[in-house]
Design goal:
With 348 residues, the protein is mostly helical. The chain has 2 domains: 16-212, H-NOX domain (Alpha-Beta Complex), CATH 3.90.1520; 239-347, Orthogonal Bundle (Arc Repressor Mutant, subunit A), CATH 1.10.10. It contains 16 helices and 5 strands. The protein has helices spanning 16-26, 32-35, 55-68, 74-81, 89-95, 100-109, 143-164, 186-191, 220-238, 242-252, 261-267, 272-281, 286-304, 309-315, 321-332, 336-347, and strands spanning 121-124, 128-132, 173-175, 195-196, 203-207. A 5-stranded mixed β-sheet has the order 1-2-5-3-4. Helix 1 (16-26) packs parallel to helix 3 (55-68), helix 3 crosses helix 7 and helix 4 packs parallel to helix 7.
């Protein structure tokens, strides 16, 4: 699915994260003009709902925060201020999920809508459920900026889960892939759990039992409508960003054919090798985009037609309906029968 970080220069995000960061810094006596220096963003724009910003601009302001703020609590405070209601349709879609399991799954699926400075993923085990942050192990312009982004992301995750459950829902532990900083004692206070440093992976761990909990604002119809809206927003973003957006558009113009990579590359006046390199630079691949198109089309066929599973599998290029059913489960977390019943209920 399309959960990877977009091109960092694309201005496609509302400035809500910037507003939270600038507000926290202003409370420390740092003027908005200083916080936003070098980002190309005017202080008036951070409260303009029509203004669009990029991940790179947000990273610049975070770097300014690292340089200007002497308060180690800053990233944690920013994360705590980013309540789900600040994320627009993405946040409300998560708030209306029918279970925490859906919350985790859709948090990753729609993360592209959240000005993602870090990528996220999650894994479920028999006794625990773990948020993962793969980018935490990659290089960053500075060690301080990387730690700032991780601290903020962890704080935001804890805040979001408390938003949909209860204020006392805390992680079991948090693990960080770097040495304990001078303010390590602040981590447990903000995250509400033991914190371990010099770990192999960056993880936020919860008890597996929370996955079956029902969010306070769970609502079947609202969840469906908001998730459909997020799907459309994701589709618009995919079709507008870089080489991956052009590939997406080309494939979607002939959904019954699903052209191979060399055909798409030729339509873009480049070689397959060049296309592969450009997609890699955007943190994606032709296979990932094709998989995403298949998912979008499968859900559209289920929603608007009475095609059988065999017919949809054939149209989407699967060897048989069993392979299609497995893919559908991987994409949505639901089986074909459940999705069919959901579609019938929506039409009733």
């Amino acid at each position: 699915m399309f959960s990877r970080i977009s091109l960092i220069n694309e201005r496609i995000y509302a400035p809500y994260k910037l507003a939270a960061l600038v507000e926290v810094l202003a409370e420390q006596g740092i003027a908005p003009e200083a916080s936003l220096r070098g980002s190309g963003i005017d202080p008036a724009q951070i409260y303009d709902a029509s203004a669009l910003t990029s991940v790179r601009q947000y990273a610049i302001v975070c770097q300014n925060a690292v340089s200007l703020s002497c308060n180690p609590d800053t990233p944690f405070k920013v994360g705590a201020r980013l309540r789900l209601s600040a994320y627009g349709m993405y946040g409300y879609a998560l708030m209306s999920c029918l279970s925490l399991r859906d919350f985790f799954r859709l948090g990753v699926k729609y993360h592209h809508l959240a000005t993602p400075a870090l990528s996220i993923d999650w894994k479920e085990y028999s006794d625990r459920v773990v948020w993962l942050f793969p980018d935490a192990l990659t290089s960053s312009p500075s060690r301080e900026l990387k730690e700032f982004l991780i601290e903020q992301q962890f704080s935001a995750h804890v805040t979001h889960i408390r938003d949909v459950t209860s204020p006392d829902c805390s992680p079991i532990k948090a693990c960080f892939p770097y040495p304990a900083p001078a303010h390590a004692n602040r981590y447990p206070e903000h995250l509400g759990c033991p914190c371990q440093f010099d770990q192999e992976r960056c993880e936020l761990v919860y008890d597996n039992a929370i996955l079956d909990r029902k969010p306070q604002l769970a609502h079947n119809i609202t969840a469906t409508l908001l998730q459909e809206t997020c799907d459309r927003l994701i589709g618009q973003a995919k079709a507008s960003v870089g080489a991956s957006g052009e590939v997406y558009q080309i494939i979607m113009t002939s959904p019954g054919i699903l052209p191979p990579m060399d055909t798409v590359a030729s339509a873009m006046n480049m070689t397959s090798r060049t296309l592969r390199r450009r997609l890699l630079a955007e943190n994606t691949s032709f296979v990932a985009i094709l998989d995403d198109v298949r998912c979008s089309l499968a859900l559209e066929y289920l929603r608007t037609t009475r095609l059988s599973a065999d017919d949809i599998a054939t149209v989407l290029g699967f060897n048989d309906s069993a392979a299609f059913r497995r893919a559908l489960k991987r994409w949505t977390g639901k089986g074909l029968g459940e999705l069919r019943r959901q579609q019938c209920a929506e039409k009733a």
